[in-house]
Amino acid sequence: MTTADRNSSGLTPHEARARFRDGLKVPTAGWCSGWTQANLIAVPRDLAYDMLLFAQRNPAPCPVLDATEPGETSSAIFDGDLRTDLPGYCVYERGQLVAEVDSVRDYWRDDLVAFLVGCSFTFEDALLEAGVPVRHIEAGTNVPMYRTSRPCRPAGRISGPLVVSMRPIPADLVATAVRVTSRYPAVHGAPVHVGDPKALGIRDIGRPDFGDPVQIRPGELPVFWACGVTPQAAVMQSRPPFAIGHAPGMMAVTDARDSSYLVP
Amino acid sequence: MTTADRNSSGLTPHEARARFRDGLKVPTAGWCSGWTQANLIAVPRDLAYDMLLFAQRNPAPCPVLDATEPGETSSAIFDGDLRTDLPGYCVYERGQLVAEVDSVRDYWRDDLVAFLVGCSFTFEDALLEAGVPVRHIEAGTNVPMYRTSRPCRPAGRISGPLVVSMRPIPADLVATAVRVTSRYPAVHGAPVHVGDPKALGIRDIGRPDFGDPVQIRPGELPVFWACGVTPQAAVMQSRPPFAIGHAPGMMAVTDARDSSYLVP
User: Fold this and answer.
1) ipTM
2) Cα-flanking dihedrals φ and ψ of residue A251, to 5°?
3) Residues in chain A within 8 Å Cβ distance of B189
4) Which of A208, B20, B161, B241 is buried most, with the most CB atoms less than 10 Å from its CB?
5) Residues of each domain in chain B carrying CATH 3.40.1640.10
């Protein structure tokens, strides 16, 4: 998969959402430079507290940027329609993926509450500005994501593994990458792990569980950040009756500024 | 009210909780130096999502440090009994205070979920270390707290005003107070207002809504921080069937370290 538009980084969130609403289905890495992207997870009202508590107990992978009340389809940071304005969605029944579609208008229910969860794309501009390469943006592909062997702290009926995203970083820039991303604690913050993928239970770094593989060059280390796909992995493991998520890498482009999540 | 024990600052959380469990009813400012204190709000399961969403939408006054599942009476950061180990409690029915007691064992219900919300006492040691006086600790009284005219962002059935705590700060130390407290974003962080109380809708600074008044000396400005009593003010305004809170100023002394909420 590649992004369809060379100028996508200069679009406003409003413009990007219109393209996705019209059916464009692409990963959003690099889109709408400076605007915050978010993971989506929507569950029935009955599960809302468990899911919000799961997020609260696992703030590194699940930083909640905003949440809706039952029936709402927009949010204070998303002036669009959560059912149509993301490039892609995953629909789950009892933890099974039953549809991957570019609109969930036909699946949405009035009792759903939606969570917008911070995304590491938020700090990628800052990495690039600091001279740290971001391989999947260079390649125009989706960021590689992996289920780990680390369990999240459960909450009620929700449990699941930590999911991580990976970026290969030259050894002499690892410290810079840590320093830059530490300043964005609300969008996953500093890496959770540097180096050996096996320590996270990742057997084959060349075969991500979500997204696309990227090349790790000589002199580079794989660096892992907590990932907002974690709530979807929890849905797969916990098997609630119904849930909707974004398609991994195809995020909600919000009206919040990346800079608003930067700590001084 | 004055603290009963000159050595209270050197106690462990375990020791302090034992005294409160035995019936000691005092404000906890200055107790258990270095250990984090927290506000308590407990509501029925049915209201849990609304309350957690209210907190999520109003992170300055309502930073959730931990939350329980229905029926739990301890938490990952509170290795005691939430029903007995605080010095004082307020019990509300339909928003009315119906009891102020030193144990809620007779009031607790199995469907309650409890939220531990960050408290500005957490950064008071850091203020003192930076040479900023903390008047209510000097005086051995409870911190003054005020309802403001600023509404919080509502969530479901929960709405209410921002509540603030106030500390008088010498004009030349206001910047230091801002800088020091900014480093504790998870426990209210930087002040929400410096100076004129009327801008917050506070009519008489000498008559706080909760806690005790303190002297503001010549050359000092009143400085206001978001306060974790805000969820209780929301309970009073929103009138849910039942709720339990801590008595203002009489906090849950947790097993978390103040330093764990310090950002680098």
Assistant:
1) 0.80
2) -90, 165
3) none
4) B20
5) 9-120+237-261
